[in-house]
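User: Please predict the structure of the protein below. I'd like the answer in structure-token form so I can feed it into my own downstream comparison script.

Assistant: Understood. Taking the following sequence of 365 residues as input:
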Amino acid sequence: MSSPERRVELRSDTFTLPSREMLEAMVVAELGDDGYGEDPTVNELEAMAAHVIGKDAACFMPSGTMGNLSAIMTHCPRGAKVIMGAESDIYLYEAGGASVCGGVVYHPVPNRADGTMDLGLIAAAFPASPGDPQYALPALLCLENPQNHRGGKVLPASYLREVTTFARENGLTVHLDGSRIFNAALSARVPAAQLAGYADSVMFCLSKGLGAPVGSIVAGTAAFVRDVRRLRKMLGGGMRQAGVLAAAGIVALANRDRLADDHVSARRLADGLAAMSELAVERVEPGINMVFFRVATSELDTHAFIAAAQARGVRLAELGHNRIRAVTHNGVTADDIGYALDVIGSILADARRRGRTDCRRVLAG
């Protein structure tokens, strides 16, 4: 069972490596200075991204974090309030950038089990007396689809309609963190542009399941994207011959339907893990490329389990206390899934044997 030279990377789909097609496109990409708007490959990527996501314009970003930050700072004046889910990546994993760089106040709202936020709790973010100068006034609602921390849940269209209508009736602009929006679209069986259409602006990543080595996209109206470009420059994200990277993004977008293979791999992994009585698997329907589970036995704690798996070449990560996430991507084959299940089964079997041995020792003592 032990095969230390073998590596199955399930910690995140950010570990994807560019395909041969991407590498070849990067070598021959036509280049210019994107600071002057003259890199033709970047321009092609941005036009393609805007079309695919159903927005007027798009801006190529070094990262999704910078993309979300630029969008929030464009939508919100200093001292304004941004409302988002307490389990959202913007709130948990983006280093408080909107407050640090933009003077924007975060107002987290609890996410329900399905990833949605209660409209009443969103309404509670508004001051009872809007004219009172003591209060920060809400300007933006941020949604995340799919919901990473909620197991990769895809927000239903009915909720998106309801929450965005509520937001606009109350004077809020809507930004969508759609870092894995194409996974969500495949699961919901709708075009990504339909999901993005509920929001005024959207960010999506090229460097997760889509497999490009670097980059994200922010899209919205032409005026919004113009302001985002200025903030990208201010934040240090201006790039010169960025077509080298954009070329991989073009290939990634053209092959976005390949993500369905990752969903199949995730379902196979979830089915295999669910068959192991020592594990509690979170079932998410429709699922994307993520599987969340817990070690449900006193004979093995989470960190020891992850370390044992890593020692045998299977990389897993804790996301939430004692909650393990496995993410499939284009670097994980069907054979890798089988190997990972064999490794995990062997680790649990070893734990059972140790438990029985310790029990016999206690009885003998």
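That's the full token string. Confidence is low (pLDDT under 50) at residues 357-365.
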